[in-house]
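Homework help board

Subject: predicted structure for assignment chain

Our instructor gave us this sequence and asked us to write out the predicted structure in token form, then describe one feature. I got the tokens but I'm not sure how to describe them. Can anyone check?
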Amino acid sequence: MYSIGVDIGAMSIKIGLVDEYGKILYKSSFKTNKNPKKAIDSIAYQIKDLLKDNNTSIQDIKGIGIGCPGAVNSKTGVIDFLPNLDWENIEIVKMLKEYFDTDIKISNDANVATLGEVVYGSAKNLNSAIMFTLGTGVGGGIVIDKKLFEGEQSRGAELGHTTLVLDGEQCSCGRKGCVECYASATALIKQTKNAMEQNKSSKMWDLVGGDINNVDGKTAFESAKQGDKTANEVVDKYVYYLGESILNMLNIFRPEAFIIGGGISNEGDFLINKLISHCEKQNYGYKDAPKTQILRATLGNDAGIIGASVLVR
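My token output:
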């Protein structure tokens, strides 16, 4: 039995036909229209084309799952607020029901990515996992007994907006000291630039061609691997922030696995091993507690499609 996963992003929308083993049989993508009605109409047309191209009807699928950034109410099927597109109170499930007589469900994009990793990805043999997606911000997802925990009106699991540093850096959410301010790719870039400004002899300058505007989430890690002292200091500080954020989650939930996703996860074992080392030094938070695996997400850019498809399975 197939299901369809829809991954809504600020720049593009991806749609895939997914089988019962989590394999994407067919997928397409198109530019996101900022007009919500037009965007949802396009989703419907793309799904119809997808079904037609694969000789499949709506009766042959379990349903349509949707992952979307921002504030999403999974019970009402409404996108309450999607800031990057200025969408508010969009009844997306109801609107798509006008096209398709099938089960349609929606959840936050970080939630569905976590669900995808637990069912088909890095934690597929486990029942519980927490996930950070490290990108422009820090997304979070919680799966317990292979079910999403979203909180009242799906407004929970905002793990990136838990406080890491009391009265710390100003966060875009309005609070101060959030995990996102210290463990996101945006924060890492800021930390890298600050360190470079303080040390003009760092190899990181060579890596970016002398232009600090070329700094990205890879800069410190690549230079650290080459033995640059300043870069290693940046990486170690970043690992400290991220590691402490993880330990907070472990002490609350004690999941079987903690998953690292998003662009920063591409650092692979170099990052994961450092995080494990940091956490293992913390006796109460890790060493003498039930073992929590720290894993890298494996579904990559397909996590949104695959995870969304799980919503209707």
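Reply (TA_rk): Your tokens look well-formed. For the description, you could write something like this. The two ends are 9 Å apart (CA to CA). That's the kind of observation they're looking for.
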